[in-house]
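Lab notebook, page 48
Experiment: co-folding of the full assembly
Goal: obtain a model of how the components sit together before planning crosslinking
Operator: M.T.
Materials (sequences as entered):
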Amino acid sequence: MNRILFREQLSDTVFLMRLEAPLIAQERRAGQFIILQVDHHFGERIPLTIADADPVEGSITIVFQAVGRTTRQLALLGEGDHVEALVGPLGSPTHIEYFGSVVCVGGGIGVAPLHPIAQALKAAGNHLTIIMGARGRELLILERQMAAIADELVVCTDDGSAGRKALVTEPLKEVCAREPKPGLAVAIGPPLMMKFCAEATRPFGVPTVVSLNTIMVDGTGMCGGCRVTVGNETKFVCVDGPEFDGHRVDFDNMISRLSAYRRQEAAHSCKLEEAR
Amino acid sequence: MSAALSPKERLAIPPQPMPEQDPFARRANMEEVALGYTPEQARLEAERCLQCRNAPCIAGCPVAIDIPGFVGAIADGDNQRAIGIIKQSSLLPAVCGRVCPQETQCQAPCTVGKALKSTGKAVAIGRLERYVADWERENGLVDTPAVKPATGKRVGIVGTGPAGLTVAADVRREGHEVVLFEAFHKPGGVMVYGIPEFRLPKRIVQQEIDALLAMGCRLETNFVIGRTRKITDLLEKDGFHALFIGTGAGLPRFMNIEGENLVGVYSANEYLTRSNLMRAYDRDRAATPIFESEKVAVLGGGNVAMDAARTAVRLGAREVHLIYRRTEVEMPARVEEVHHAKEEGIAFHLLQNPKRILADERGWVCGIECLKYELGEPDASGRRRPVAIPGSEFEIEVDTVIVAIGNDSNPLIRQTTPGLETNRWGNIVVDEAGKSSLDRIYAGGDIVLGAATVILAMGEGRRAARSINAMLAAEA
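Observation: model returned without errors.
Model output:
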């Protein structure tokens, strides 16, 4: 169970893996995620979005950045190894329909969870503009896959090493200013990027969906650790989300909650370094 | 030997105190607090039982254990007979002996307690139950129950808490194939993620699981019914002939006050799950972090609040404040947990309730503002309603707030199972046989009752198992 069928290093710290998970591959819909644990005795449970699935092979694809303790352990595993716990598909699927034209924005590793959503929106007949952004060329992922489904692809990097030298919000504003304006914007990436994307689309009145990746334990509504403030309500990302109306999410609150364990994580990193 | 004692002599035997870890020492470890009776203590305590003919204790037990029967057997020195009597009615005696609210159940109507004018002096039925269950386990005498020849019928159990484990055992005994589904990576439900090691050692729960596996039950962990597979798929595609839903009350309630989403505010579920299931207390080995709190406020007065407060102490908090809006008399927690919490230095703030949680400039908890309350007229629950005293606001400096004001039922199954009738609290509606509005689907425990107790969940499980067995037998 949960065997790693394929592993590819996409950049310095970004990895793609295909995992054996026949039931999840069958049930999952765009926008859903899994929780995995490398070691079920002392490991942490972390949520990762499903980037793709193959129900015939019985596999799902995940893309992750090896930055925390668990993702670094995961990156050390190779084809044929197993992850001890894999549970899903979790969360509510993306609402897919025909909106006319849709603009999808993926920042950094956020391009991975964006991929199945863009695929589904394309399949529903939407005209698709995809904006991909990263700090530099070496951090751009899945460009070929996105090019294959986009009617229009805009690549931008912070340092100009690939595509336009711009933040993703620049082309996003340009697309929103077109007539007719897009029926929907989807933004997935670092919390700050999603916050500024939501600010960018707000004046144009373009409905904007964001997919939140918060700290979770169970992923089924039991702990409430993932809660965010949306409008004036508290929502659980794991069951009410992960997608929300970006114009109503309190990103500052979400960003501060993501920093809750920064001190402990720093301490763990020190220990990992010492052990080497 | 025990028959030689007169009632007067029995009443003269002093109640046997439970040997316990020293309060100061146990603040720094996760080991069990109550150490269990010695054989001599158990015999003396059992001899305090008057063997009343009307046995009011039995009426106080949700599963009607023959209490005078098993207590008498202990007094006779026949532990084997004692555990046999308990097991006719209860499947989880080592657990129930530890976590049942005996003082409001079997021990409340005890004649000895009444004669001595104190429920606290009733025969310690729970401690005796624990004693014989531990005696059986520690002496390697636990038998794997016999399983009848295979019937070819398959039963799925959703959730591996006390209700699910009970149904699994009772259904498997009849020869039906049993598959247990658990969303987490470890089975046991609230007994594993919620109740801490110092109150219920995990090895005791594990032993119950091992017994089921030895009987041939199959366990699927990391399997979320409603997501990985739907209820209807199990019945229509996967060949299950009956299902039992025992998913518990797992959705934490919050207070809906200002500041509840600040960094440092936990639901008790999250705090306890991190510490218990994810082992965050073992800081050197566990990857799951938990706040290194200095000053903690716990909101609530139930067992979960006590568990959270006492866990915070063990994780190194210097001050733990328990804030409850009524008085100690109304606290739903077991008397013993309240007593232990106080011994461990937890500060009780009664007739107080938080108004808002205060933040520092980073959005982290730095304090809690409370209001003082007084008791007014009785409310629907029969308890006097706490009423806020206007202008009585005051602040307590804390860096962590744990909300332990109860749980609602998880909506996952309800939302993904068309036609499953639930009430306005989201609990599954069942008939007197434990059957839901859908054919072949039974339910029990907290998902039916709302947040309750291990013993009630077990009682519900037994009822549903009888119905499932009867239904499958009729179809054979």
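Interpretation: The interface with chain A takes residues 183-186, 193, 221-224, 227-229, 250-252, 254, 256, 260-264, 266-267, 269-270, 273-274, 278-279, 282, 285-289, 291-292, 362-364, 410-412 of chain B (CB under 8 Å).
Next step: discuss with group before ordering constructs.
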